[in-house]
Amino acid sequence: MDKTDNSFLTFVQFIQEVEIAENKCQEYIDIGWLQPVENNLFSPDDILKVRKADRLCKDFELPCHGAAMIVDLLAKIDDLEFQLLQLRDNNV
């Protein structure tokens, strides 16, 4: 899928694109980590984060909520590192 394509995906399209089992995707929805937008459509932006979480589940035998938390924390670390670089660049 083209990363510049911002069209929303149906549930079936989303699970096919992510290459995840339907019940696993539903579990991410049930815990509130993956949230469809109106009319039960999904953002293409969520594809990568769900793939990361699924990979963590498989590699480390984690439950969905554990993998979801790790993905969120890794994203937060990336954001904080970026902010730190910006601060350092502004102070030079």
Can you describe this structure?
With 92 residues, the chain is an all-alpha fold. The chain has a single domain, classed as Orthogonal Bundle (Multidrug-efflux Transporter Regulator, Chain: A, Domain 2), CATH 1.10.1660. The chain contains four helices and no strands. Helix 3 packs across helix 4. The longest helix is centred in the last third of the chain and has 27 residues. The protein starts with 10 loop residues before the first helix and ends with a helix.
Radius of gyration computed on alpha carbons = 15 Å
Overall pLDDT: 92
CATH topology: Multidrug-efflux Transporter Regulator, Chain: A, Domain 2
Level-2 CATH architecture: Orthogonal Bundle
Elements, N to C (H/E): HHHH
| Largest sheet properties | none
Report the sheet-strand fraction: under 5%
Number of domains: 1
Q: What's the CATH first level?
A: Mainly Alpha
Uncertain parts = none
Helix-strand makeup class: mainly alpha
The number of distinct helices, counting runs of at least 4 residues, comes to 4
The general outline is globular
Cα(first) to Cα(last) distance is 40 Å
